[in-house]
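so i finally got all the pieces together for this one. its two components total, 756 residues if u count the protein bits. some of the lines might not be protein, just check the labels. i wanna see the whole assembly predicted at once instead of chain by chain like last time, that was a mess tbh
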Amino acid sequence: MDKIKLIILREYLTRVKKKSFIVMTFVGPLLMAALMIVPVFLATLENEDEKRIGVIDDSGLFEGKFQDTKSMKFFILEKSMDEAKTHLMTSSDYGFIHIPKNIVSDPDAASFYSRKQPGINTKEDLERVIRKELEDIKLINTIDQLNLSANDKVVALKIPETIKTRVSLTTIKLGEGAEEEETFAEASMVIGIFAGIIIYFFIFMFGVQVMRGVIEEKTNRIIEVIISSVKPFQLMMGKIIGIALVGLTQLALWIVLTTGIVTIYNMATGTGSSQTAQTEMLSKNMNISDEIDIQKEFEDQNKVMKIINSLPMGQILISFVLYFLFGYLLYAALFAAVGSAVDNETDTQQFMFPITIPLILAMVMAQFIIQNPEGPAAFWFSIIPLTSPVIMLVRIPFGVPIEELILSIGLLIGAFLGATWMAARIYRIGILMYGKKPTWKELAKWVRFKG
Amino acid sequence: MSLFVVENVSKHFSNHTALDSVSIEIPKQGIFGLLGPNGAGKTTLIRIINQITAPDSGKLFFNGEKLNPNHISQIGYLPEERGLYKKMKVGEQAIYLAQLKGLSRSETIKRLRYWFEKFEIASWWDKKVEELSKGMQQKIQFIVTILHEPKLLIFDEPFSGFDPINVNLLKEEILNLRDNGATIIFSTHNMGSVEELCDHIALINNSKKILDGNVDEIRNAYNDNTFELLYTGFNDDLRSILNANFNVLEQSEDQGKQFAKVKIEKGRSNDLIEAVIPHLQIHSFEELIPSMNDIFIRRVEEANQ
């Protein structure tokens, strides 16, 4: 057991100390952070086309307050809400803003209706106008109440604290009668596909590292020295486990660093503060039950979080860890067997093929299975061990019966044990074979060889 | 007493037999030469002794006990195809390999210091293996092989890749190891070093053992009573003065001296001297004991016929 520990430690340390690992550790989170930040950033860069925006002002406070800008032209809309909605669907208007009578007492009561999800800039511009107006009104009221002359500067300077108003505009996208369920499906899809891709990526990347490591020991000819000290099985498992730990380290570092970068970015750009406002708004959105024909697009992470909370997160996490672990172990054993059977990496093609096909097939199938996560294809691909790590992860956010999960994980563990047994038998012979590339028949013979 | 006993060991691969009922006894504290042409089965036997592969049948004993994984730490193996992790630093790598043999880290470092100083290579400690020359790498590998002070050492062609100076250094170390109590299995094609170092040998050909025993005894057994004679003062055919008891195999002249190889078919060496003394001046007279090289070639050719 101590020897396996030594091997694991060596495999782990030599890889973690490598330049490529360190580079990947920092480049990965930068890319991922960019992936999260850039869409948000792009959303702020709206196209500069002129947007016609109607104003329904029930409060009567905002007449002439919405000033035209380069990209927004405002006009008074003399229609009832229902008329305005139907009108919007047929007109070329960008949208309309509705300011209810109670806007002063409830600064968040205003809504913006549009056919397209408005960008962050548009939303913030509109909010600024409302906020400014409300603050003016409050200021005047306060001054009236205090019975002060507006010239009393000493007092006026203290006022802003009390009149500071936070405005949150509810944005509502009008569209074909899609139900809120749709949104959840989308979130499930995103989470499923994301988890599937991560598993696929890690199995591939670190499985190939196992194979390379085996080939390296073979071509270095150090293998014979080592297996005169330890059993081939110990060496193989030590390598597989050591590299698994490298993978987990990388994953953990990526999560920590990505979170760090995104947090720092948000702090630097102040996106964070507007998010808290949006959270409040969101909780209100959820209560508007009479707007059945209105599909509310989830527009930021807060809403995603809300949906995520409604998903079986515990199940997703546990499954992710289990499928990640056993999926990797299954494939790593196969990759180790391939590495042991050949002398150099160019010879691996023939044996890699049947291993990579199920993985790639799983990624391809994932796109179809996401459309029909309950169908027979979904069922079988999530049960068969070679594809189940990817496909089951795609399915889980949609809800999978527990007995199917147990069957699938049971089969995966069984396949892992079987593959490890078989790989170990190929490995112990393969690492000592040089020269001619073995045929499939010879590999089968190796498996049957005694000790 | 034997340190290692191989009893009727056979090993078959899918389409050929690597070892066919081979039995060998390796005496304690000696140097045992494992000889044989390429592909004879030497490497397979060495791997079986190292427990890298298991025999199909037969028994193996280490120090009287049935061979088992506990013996791994008492065996040191220097394979013919040597290798180290190229990207790993020399010191780190030596520590790792010694630890795999069951040595503690602190003990390993202590012993490594001793050897690195002895071989005057202390400055290599933090170098990567790929920065060293092949001969340097071999030295490291030799140290790693013997570091855990095993009872049994197996050297497969240990001198290949070394310059003559380092070959001598290595020979000295191997003899030192034997004197300090180690038993050494020495596999080689270099028959000169076999005669110089080995006490016992086994010759394996075509998966079978065809000869084994003490080196001197084997050479004497193959002694066919041939003598080499260096003389002057007689330029005619030697046969003219020798009777049928003597068979002249070769005659030549070199720088004024006559040279002859004579096989004594009947009688003793003194008879030959008596017969020639009246006719010529003897400069040297030497018994030609066959070299291991001759015996090797003879036995392998006989076996292959």
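DSSP finds 17 helices and six strands in chain A.
The longest strand of chain A covers residues 51-57.
anyway lmk what u think
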